[in-house]
Amino acid sequence: MNRLALADLAASLASHGDSLAISQHEVSAETIMNYWSAFRTRHEQWHRVMAGYRDAKNSGSFPSLHRWWDEYEGVLDDILVSELLTRVVATLGSVCERTMIDEGNDRVAAVTHGVFHSQLDASYRVGQILLEATAAPVAMIVRLNRLRHGVQRWSDWLVARVTTSPDAHIDYCVDQHRAQAFRAELRDSGDSRFRTMTSWLMNASMREMIQRRSSATPGLEDHNKAVIAAALGLFRSDLFDDYGVPKSHWLMSLGVDWPNNSTPAHPVFES
Question: Three-state SS for 10?
Answer without folding.
Answer: helix
